[in-house]
Design goal:
alpha+beta; seven-stranded mixed sheet; 136 residues; 4 helices
């Protein structure tokens, strides 16, 4: 099974960027694409709400993956385009890092794309991730 390159995942995610407003809500200004253990690709966009009940693009991509009964992430990327049109790769926020880890324990070793030529494992981005041992 061939794992897509960083550039291929970035390109797939950026194709989903179609930010738009509905009232005071912003939809789709961040997009994420992930590849699973089986090689399947899943993507999603963020949903921002005024009350904070929205979700990140990684959550949307993971929801699509789980809907297909897959849980193990091999590689993931999120992208955003600024007002001048420059494309950025965004590292996952803390909530997304923990969410990825909790979907499947093996996801701690998922590759997180940080740039065209840069990646890190989720383990590197989420230190001290193991359940603590008792003090006594």
């Amino acid at each position: 099974m061939r794992i897509p390159s960083n550039n291929e995942l970035i390109d797939t995610a950026q194709a989903l960027l179609h930010p738009h407003r509905v009232g005071d809500r912003l939809f789709g200004d961040v997009a994420a694409t992930l590849v699973t253990e089986s090689g399947a690709l899943y993507s999603g966009v963020c949903v921002d709400t005024g009350s904070g009940t929205g979700f990140c693009a990684e959550h949307a991509a993971i929801a699509a993956m789980v809907t297909a009964r897959e849980y193990r992430i091999r590689k993931v990327v999120a992208v955003w385009r600024n007002d001048e049109g420059a494309l950025h790769v965004l590292p996952p926020c803390g909530r997304c890092r923990e969410f990825v880890r909790q979907i499947d324990p093996a996801n701690i070793d998922a590759e997180v794309v940080l740039g065209r030529n840069t990646s890190a494992s989720l383990r590197e981005l989420l230190p001290a991730n193991e359940w603590p041992q008792p003090l006594d």
